[in-house]
């Protein structure tokens, strides 16, 4: 599977504007560039709302294209609504180019004239069509790309988030490869320097920070007429980690020990039940590594099936006893504690509930957020510390994962 090996995000006001109306989000595996427009700081407001709509990441990354488009439409509705409630912000809007790096593909959602490119085998491929007047004219054959460069209406866009109650969002999935370098940028880069120069600078600077700074400097040297935003992402291949997946296997997994559960900062009154359920109700085996389920041999199928059925009935009775004894507070408790583990694909994941499976494969947890970080990319020490299944409040777990995604974890 692919992962983000290196990333850079930078934004610059340029040489002629007073304010920077661009906004940028780099939260691996999700990256967003938004270029706002509108008087009296309205452009800043619009682009910030667009980016904030993506802040929480994708809830479930199984259909990233659809989810990105959904988040873009939600941002559109928010910006549109605000522009109607405030005269100073009337008519504000923003472009949006959002990229989600999946295991094999890069999903893109796009509105306006900010762009996404891929540098592959030293060739620069443009992945988005501008929703701009000059691009429409080029597509209709009424303007050549050369004429477009100096066209007086080159910054007029035909689609944006905000001006209308409903927006059409372009999406695509691009089959990614290890070594791919992706560039997201606002038009402050692409109206100042040609694509050949962009490609030359990317090829000349192997380190993404150097490449990003060189692109911004080149746009400024060419005049810096607009705000310049650059995001760079390099992908590499990683092996999926083994041995610490919570959701590994479909049959019973041994219960990792949580000795004296370190429940910290859980403020709800249901916390004591969580501790009781964690420590006493389920006799934990003194191991932290889930046992890999043994495949059933072909000859023993009827007996195996009977055993499974018995086990399931036993589990159900056991669960009923547990929940009966502890009352509905136990159920509530499961919903107020969180822990960090890995999902079946080895990605660091935030789970809601307790890190246990009852006999019969009844999980006491569910996945709440899947990060783009593969556990196999962590050092053994960090892996042990982060994936120790200790319980957290929702905000603590979320901020741990966020720090991890931003590369800021100690
Ligand atoms: Ca711009």
Major beta-sheet overview = 6 strands, antiparallel
SS-based structural class? Answer: alpha+beta
- Report helical residue fraction: 25-40%
Named CATH architecture of the domain at 2-237: 4-Layer Sandwich
Mean pLDDT score, rounded? 80
Count of helical regions: 12
Taking pLDDT < 50 over at least 5 consecutive residues as the criterion, the unreliable ranges are 242-301
Bound molecules: calcium ion
Radius of gyration over all CA atoms, rounded? 25 Å
Structure in a nutshell:
The protein is globular, with a radius of gyration of 25 Å. By secondary structure, the protein is of the alpha+beta class. The chain is 33% helix and 25% strand.
List the SSEs and their pairings.
Layout: E1 2-12, E2 22-27, E3 30-37, H1 42-52, H2 64-85, E4 93-94, E5 96-101, E6 105-111, E7 115-120, E8 123-126, H3 133-139, H4 145-149, E9 170-175, E10 181-185, H5 187-190, H6 195-204, H7 208-221, E11 228-237, H8 271-281, H9 301-326, H10 328-334, E12 338-342, E13 347-358, E14 362-374, H11 380-386, H12 394-405
Antiparallel strand pairs: 1-11, 2-3, 3-4, 3-5, 5-6, 6-9, 7-8, 7-10, 10-11, 12-13, 13-14
Bound molecules: calcium ion.
């Amino acid at each position: 599977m692919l992962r983000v090996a290196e990333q850079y995000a930078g934004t610059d006001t340029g040489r002629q504007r007073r304010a920077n109306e661009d906004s940028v989000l780099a939260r691996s595996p999700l990256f967003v560039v938004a270029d706002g427009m509108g008087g009296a700081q309205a452009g800043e407001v619009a682009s910030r709302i667009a980016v904030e709509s993506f802040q929480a990441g994708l809830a479930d990354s199984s259909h990233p294209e659809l989810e990105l488009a959904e988040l873009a439409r939600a941002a559109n509705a928010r910006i549109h609504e605000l522009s109607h409630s405030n005269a100073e912000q009337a008519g504000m809007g923003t472009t949006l180019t959002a990229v989600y790096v999946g295991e094999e593909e890069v999903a893109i959602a796009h509105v306006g004239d900010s762009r996404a490119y891929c540098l592959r085998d030293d060739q620069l491929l443009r992945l988005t069509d501008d929703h701009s007047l000059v691009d429409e004219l080029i597509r209709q054959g009424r303007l050549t790309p050369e004429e477009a460069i100096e066209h007086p209406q080159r910054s007029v866009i035909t689609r944006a988030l905000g001006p209308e109650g409903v927006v059409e969002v372009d999406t695509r999935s691009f089959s990614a490869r290890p070594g791919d370098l992706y560039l997201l940028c606002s038009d402050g880069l692409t109206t100042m320097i040609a694509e050949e120069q962009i490609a030359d600078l990317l090829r000349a600077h192997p380190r993404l920070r150097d490449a990003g700074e060189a692109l911004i400097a080149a746009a400024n040297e060419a005049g810096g007429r607009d705000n310049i935003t650059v995001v760079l992402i390099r992908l590499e291949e990683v092996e999926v980690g083994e041995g610490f997946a919570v959701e590994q296997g479909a049959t019973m997994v041994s219960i990792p020990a949580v000795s004296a559960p370190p429940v910290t900062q859980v403020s709800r009154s249901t916390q004591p039940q969580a501790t009781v359920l964690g420590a006493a109700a389920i006799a934990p085996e003194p191991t932290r590594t889930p046992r890999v389920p043994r495949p059933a041999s072909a000859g023993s199928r009827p007996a195996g099936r009977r055993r499974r059925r018995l086990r399931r009935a036993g589990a159900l009775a056991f669960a009923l006893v547990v929940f009966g004894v502890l009352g509905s507070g136990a159920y509530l408790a499961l919903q107020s504690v969180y822990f960090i583990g890995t999902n079946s694909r080895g990605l660091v994941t935030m789970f809601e509930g307790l890190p246990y499976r009852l006999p019969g494969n009844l999980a006491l947890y569910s996945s709440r957020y899947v990060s783009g970080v593969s556990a196999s990319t962590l050092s053994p020490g960090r892996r042990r510390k982060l994936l120790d299944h200790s319980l957290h409040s929702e905000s603590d777990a979320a901020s741990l994962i966020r720090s991890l995604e931003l590369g800021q974890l100690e």
